[in-house]
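Structure first, sequence second, as always.
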């Protein structure tokens, strides 16, 4: 009886990994698509944001 539970657990593990990988690749794909559109406009904003975070850390 105990051996019958292992394939079920493996199936759930494979399913969870597949869903996680799919979700990760979707996020990466969306991230790259957004960056293509926003990089020219957002680079100065990102640098300013990083400097603001740095100032907050020093305080």
């Amino acid at each position: 009886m105990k051996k019958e539970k292992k394939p079920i657990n493996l199936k759930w593990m494979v399913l969870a990994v597949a869903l996680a990988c799919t979700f990760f690749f979707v996020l990466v794909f969306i991230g790259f698509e957004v960056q293509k559109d926003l990089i020219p406009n957002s680079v100065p904003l990102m640098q300013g944001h990083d400097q603001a975070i740095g100032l907050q850390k020093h305080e």
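Margin note: The first helix runs from residue 2 to 58.
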